[in-house]
Amino acid sequence: MSAAQLSALVRTGDPHTALRRFLALDAVVTGANALAYLALSGPLGRLSGVDSTLLLALGAFLAVYAAAVGLLASRARPAALPVRAVVEINLAWTAVSCLALVLWLTPSTAGAVWTVVQALTVAGFAVLQYLALKARQDTSD
Fold first, then answer.
1. What total number of domains does the chain contain?
2. CA atoms within 13 A on the CB side of 1
3. CA neighbours within 13 Å on the CB side: how many for 114?
4. Range of the domain at 34
5. Alpha helix stretches (DSSP H) within the chain
6. If you count Cβ atoms within 10 Å of the first and of the last residue's Cβ in the chain, which end, N or C, has fewer?
7. How far apart are CA 52 and CA 55, in angstroms?
8. Other CB atoms within 10 A of residue 107 CB
């Protein structure tokens, strides 16, 4: 994806704004997921076939992570190192989600579908954030 295509996706020519928007979208989606896990761990656990205690722990982690990503998104020019950390954490989340599905979780069909969908969503955030960071670095050369 070129810088122009990436910019068109977020309707801005400023790579700093694009990066901030992708970080902010990640924070909002992650925060919503965290709140759902925290507030509805019992019903979601029964629906997904995943232990509600695990969902509570994931919800707490995701709430902290969403706040950190949101704080990073609020910066006029997010530093490259923390953005790279977000990309790497998102990729790690994707990998662990897939491994958990194969190695130790035994979710319902809904839980398996949700695990794959959220892993792909998080991987998508990682790719968009990486490309936006790269576009920003390319324009500063």
1. 1
2. 17
3. 16
4. 3-139
5. 3-10, 15-39, 41-48, 52-73, 80-103, 109-139
6. C
7. 5
8. 17
Assess whether pLDDT exceeds 60 at residue 7.
no
- HSE-CB of 77 using CA atoms within 13 angstroms: 4
- Other beta carbons within 10 angstroms of residue 117's beta carbon come to 11
Place of tokens 């390319």: 138
Instruction: State how far the alpha carbon of 124 is from the alpha carbons of 38, 64, 89, 114, in Å.
Output: 24, 20, 13, 15
Q: What is the DSSP letter of 140?
A: T
Check: CB of residue 10 under 8 Å from CB of residue 22.
yes
Average pLDDT, the chain: 91
Q: What angle do CA 24, 40, 66 make, to 5 degrees?
A: 20
Residue 34 clears pLDDT 80, i.e. is over it: yes
Cα–Cα distance between 47 and 34 in angstroms, integer? 17
When pLDDT is cut at 50, 70 and 90, the band that residue 50 belongs to is: very high
Would you say how long the chain is, in residues? 141
Q: How confident is the model at residue 15 (pLDDT cuts 50, 70, 90)?
A: confident
Q: What's the pTM?
A: 0.87
Tokens 């500063």 sit on residue: 140
